[in-house]
Specification:
The chain is of the alpha/beta class. It is built from 5 helices and 6 strands.
Length: about 120
Amino acid sequence: MTGLTVVIGYGDAALDVLRHIPLHPDVVVVDPDALALTAALANDARIVRGDGRDLCVLRHAGVQFAGRVIVAVSEDQEGLLITGFARNLNRTAVIVAAVRESANQDLFTRLGADEVFVRARSVR
């Protein structure tokens, strides 16, 4: 396991997960949003602007070398796809997923998540 943590999605879900797990010293954040990336830079992370559903973006972020991958995107369907991609790129990383619907926990585990955090849906 290397000292690299790749965080895919840098919103409230990622920040909740990051409060509960030990971080590796080297953190790369993947997000398409410039504001999220600015916040990640302010927290001493390296950044990759892009969509976590894009294998080229995941490779550019170093998922294939990471010791830990945190999947914390806003939609569970996107998270499932990213979790599967991350597991295919890296068989040994610890993959942590933040999910919105508790019914999806088993799906995330089957696709390769080692740890699943269930987040409450926000009220609209």
